[in-house]
Each structure stands twice: as C-alpha cells, then as structure tokens.
Amino acid sequence: MYTLAAMSRSAGNEVPPALAAALDGSRLEAAAGLTVLLLTVDADGWPRLAMLSAGEVLATGARALRLALWPDSRTTTNLDRSDRATLAAVLDGAGWYLRCTASRQPDLALPGGRRLASFGLTVDETLEDQVPYAELTTGIGFRLLEPDRVLPAWREAVAAMRAAGEG
Is 68 in contact with 116 (CB distance < 8 Å)? Predict the structure, then answer.
C-alpha cells in the first residue's frame, strides 16, 4: 500500500546549499522573486509572520544568517524580546524550515540616512519537508514593480549586512 503520509525530517543544522546560494547576496536579480517567511511570537503568544526578500536576508556561513529589518516593525520588537525565530522557504522542490537563535546587532546605517535593525541568526536545526509523490514548485513569490529602484536599495542593505558581519 502506498502511503501519502509526510512529515518534516531533520536535515542537520546548516542552511541548505541551494538556499545559501540564493541568499548570498551575489545574484539579487535572480533571487528577486524568492520570499523567505520569518516567524516570530508576539508578547501575547501569537505567531507572527513577516515576508522577507533576498534584500533583507543574507547567508553568511554554514549556520549563519543576517537580517535587515525595519526598526519599528513588530518583527523587530518580537526578536528583541525573544531570541527565537523560524525562517521558511520553498526551494529545490522542498519546504525548508530553519529554527534559529537570533541576537540583536548594531543598527545598519545606509545611504540617505536610512537605518535598519540588524540581527544575527544561528541555525539550530534545519527541517526539510519533501515527499516522494509530489514536488513543491513555488512558495510565496513576488515580482518587483520597480526593480531599478529596489535592487540598489537591496544592494545597500546586503553590503551593510556584510560589513557588519566583518566588524
């Protein structure tokens, strides 16, 4: 009998290679449609979801990521209060969930006076959702309406995240 049961399986504690490549900041145009979901928990215990782009998440090592978030967002407030977060993405036919510990870093100063809240994430566990009878083809995706305006802002944020990680 063929079973349709599926569940997440542990895939270690590293960023999956395909996801690391998509989030390394070197090919922002190619990663422009990828949405990374960031799950946090608010002060009332409710799960909260933020949709992040490749201009807000940077893979910096096998177990390390950086986030650049709006300073006054609920997500920033949630991460300031709790050091737990889950990143989720669909890539290479599977769903990936990265359970992470977050630590606040100094804010990122960008050209034009913009500031972004910065967090370093360490991957504690990577889970993979994949079944033999189906392939995930997409997650939440998007199309940039003004890529000539958005991609330079992403490049600035990625450069600031890289520089912050070197300090």
Answer: yes
| Model confidence pLDDT, tens digit, residues 17-33 | 999 999 999 999 999 99
Q: 118 near 104, Cβ under 8 Å?
A: yes
> Looking at the whole model, is its pTM more than 0.70?
yes
Q: Going by C-beta distance under 8 Å and a sequence separation of 6 or more, which residues neighbour residue 40?
A: 47, 48, 50, 74, 75, 78, 79, 82, 84, 85
| CATH superfamily membership of 9-160 | Electron Transport, Fmn-binding Protein; Chain A (2.30.110.10)
Tell me if 127 sits within 8 A of 10, measured CB to CB: yes
Terminal-to-terminal C-alpha distance of the chain: 57
